[in-house]
Amino acid sequence: MDGDGSISQEPLISYGSKRTRKIIVVAFGVGIAAAVIAIAIAVPLASNSGSDDKTDTGTDTLEHAKDIMRRVPLVDGHNDLPLAIRYEWKNQLANVDLNSDLSSYGLHTDIPRLREGLVGGQFWSVYVPCDSQYNDAVRQTLDQIDLVKRYVKQYSDTFAYVTTAQGIVDAFVAGKIGSLIGMEGGHSVDSTYSNLRMMYDVGARYMTLTHSCNTPWADNSGRSEDDLEFGGLSDWGKDLIREMNRLGMLVDLSHVSVSTMNDALDVSQSPVIFSHSAARTLCDNTRNVPDEVLERLVENGGIVMMVFYPGFINCEPNKQEVCDIPQVADHIEHIASVCGYGCVGIGSDYDGISVTPVGLEDVSKYPYLIEEMVIRNWTDENIEKLIGRNLIRVMQEVERVRDTMSDTFPYEEWIERNDSKAEFNNECRTHEEDGWASYPSSQKASEHLATTQCD
Ligand SMILES: *[C@@H]1O[C@H](CO)[C@@H](O)[C@H](O)[C@H]1NC(C)=O
Ligand SMILES: *[C@@H]1O[C@H](CO)[C@@H](O)[C@H](O)[C@H]1NC(C)=O
């Protein structure tokens, strides 16, 4: 979900008027399943041996791209379908058929188009807005996690719930779209390590440290670097990175300030991801990754998953909201030129953005971007890295680091409260330090109950 950016300010997307729902049930063949048998091995996936074969002249470039996508899963880092379902259907899956064409609602995602686009794996975003911070962010996040788990189960012919690198591969081999959960914004854990652990337990496999608001421990990308609240991450925030490493949860640095990126890279023992960002050198937007941070990914092993939001791709004055496939590919090539073919990925932000590049209008269009990389003479090996191998490698490494930390004691410290800050004075929250131990008999607690506006 993108509603920020110092240059571009895209509106909260509307998921369309309630036009008549078209029900087009598409039956899927088993072509995909047949085509992937060749990779029916554990990670790493079967590699294309002649890895630097150029595009054969005379070979159809689109077919070549699709062949690669049938061998190695394209794993997208960020899709906001859960948000769209919340807005449009209040999470009531009985009222929507994901097997139908949902484009009349303005959605970019449905099962027929995912299949047409040969999507192999997906991080489903369980985004909740910044105004839920200090209020019901945890509750809303759990609503969204429940929603993802329910539609994955309901459409089990298509989706498979997975939480590991191996799970992504196994789902792909079985002809399913491996479905993972990504939390977009540190406010989803309401500043406790215990909430972070519980979110991991219910399936969250990455957390974007902030959305477009600061948490009480991290500066977001909308904050000027001259006016940071924490200079990046506070000490509590740095320990949160260590706890994420210990749990095996990916640290996502999309949406954070450059200082936060650097602090996280200083602390993290595991590779990080940018689940949906682009290159700042080509488009100077604070949502994008500057070259000096890209350079650090070489040592860290992390990846930038390329976002499709035009406002982050084409920053020419008056050209915002307009871009095309070659411009998306330019960003990918720039990122690769700075930190190598091992640091690229794809993270569209479909259904979290109001505009899309020409040629990449919805999830059915990924093969055309991959075709562009074929046309640009990217080797099959490098295209495989771009679409899925890099992400799978990062997850494997995050799991390996987790395993080395099994003796590390969980982080327990509570975040320091600052009573001068409105968010901590919120009357809707229990003030534990003020006598929670004797609650509810204490005078303070009954006064609090008498005055609270929350019931
Ligand atoms: C790709 O390689 C072919 C054959 O060597 C060449 O003709 C073509 O110009 C190259 N395309 C690009 C974009 O470099
Ligand atoms: C608490 O917050 C207030 C208001 O933002 C700020 O002026 C003050 O410096 C903060 N105190 C601490 C100890 O962080």
UniProtKB/TrEMBL annotation:
What SUPFAM superfamilies has UniProt attached to this entry?
Answer: Metallo-dependent hydrolases
Output compositional bias ranges, type Polar residues.
439-455
Region annotation Disordered: residue ranges?
Answer: 433-455
Q: Where are the transmembrane segments?
A: 23-46
User: What cofactor does this chain's UniProt record say it requires?
Assistant: Zn(2+)
Q: What is its EC number?
A: 3.4.13.19
Catalytic activity, as annotated: an L-aminoacyl-L-amino acid + H2O = 2 an L-alpha-amino acid
InterPro entries recorded: Metal_Hydrolase, Pept_M19
Keywords, comma-separated and alphabetical: Dipeptidase, Disulfide bond, Glycoprotein, GPI-anchor, Hydrolase, Lipoprotein, Membrane, Metal-binding, Metalloprotease, Protease, Transmembrane, Transmembrane helix, Zinc
Topology in the lipid bilayer is annotated as: Lipid-anchor; GPI-anchor
Question: What coarse category fits the chief subcellular location reported for this protein?
Answer: membrane
Q: Which domain of life is it from?
A: Eukaryota
Any idea where this protein resides? Membrane
| Family the entry assigns | Belongs to the metallo-dependent hydrolases superfamily. Peptidase M19 family.
Q: How does it assemble?
A: Homodimer; disulfide-linked.
What name goes with this protein?
Dipeptidase
What organism, scientifically named, is this protein from? Saccoglossus kowalevskii
Taxonomic lineage is: Eukaryota, Metazoa, Hemichordata, Enteropneusta, Harrimaniidae
> What gene is it encoded by?
LOC100367996
